[in-house]
Amino acid sequence: MKSAIPTMLIGALLCAAASGGWQDDFPVDKKRLGPNGGNDYFVLTPGHKLHYKQGNNTMTAIVLNETKVIDGVECRVVEDREMKNGQLIEATRDYYAVDSQTKDVYYFGEDVDTYKHGKIKDHKGAWLSGEKGAKFGLIMPGTNKVGLKYFQEMAPGVAMDRAEVVAVGQTVTTPAGTFQNCVQTKESSTLERGTTHKWYAPGVGMVKEKEFVLVRIEK
Predict the structure, then answer these.
(1) C-beta neighbour count of 40 within 10 angstroms
(2) Which one of 1, 99, 102, 144 has the largest count of C-beta atoms within 10 Å of its C-beta?
């Protein structure tokens, strides 16, 4: 009798092949998913806060001491805030869960507030796994390897972001310091044109995205 694990892996590989090499099916046991820990490149420890800057524009990401159950899984809440010339333009609450066995971190959705002149304009881009055909994606593998291609968001018509690991062992220098053994990803979307490169450092998380660079770490 064959074990369930090889069957699940074969199924995932077949799905990836059918979608042009992009894995869009994650047959994980939800009982293994939870809000604590994260992995080397994606920290989910409450209080972990990262500050980024691009000219007069800033971003902050803070892991909150909050969880939310989405699609039957308790997820960690991470708050992101983006400022442009001192004005808040977007605030999101992102929801993540980590596999206790593989350390893969999955993305279960986000609540979004976009602002104009200090007032909430809309909630464009919001989605939650298990609602309106959306399902969770992989935000950061527990083990990175060049060539991995996976969907991060799968909310039809709303968010269909995906990432490919293009390099490992990178060195990145930002105002916050020099980081070794970084993972570089190239992100794209089936809904939009263009690509974005991001770099993640062990024990920190994202240290660079386009022109945004990490300027300060709080733990």
Answers:
(1) 18
(2) 99
